[in-house]
Amino acid sequence: MSATTAESAKGRGRGGRERILAAAAQLFATHGINATGMEQVAEAAPVSKRTLYAHFRTKSDLVIAHLQDLTASGATLEDVLNREDIPPLERILGLFDPVPDATPVRGCPFIDAAAEFPDPESAVHSYAREQKLQMVRLVTALVTELGCDEPAALAEQLVTLADGAASRAMVLGEADYGRHARTAAKTLLAQALPSTARRGGADEAGVDVFLVSEDEAVPALPKAGPV
Question: Which residues in the chain land under pLDDT 50?
Answer without folding.
Answer: 1-13, 200-227
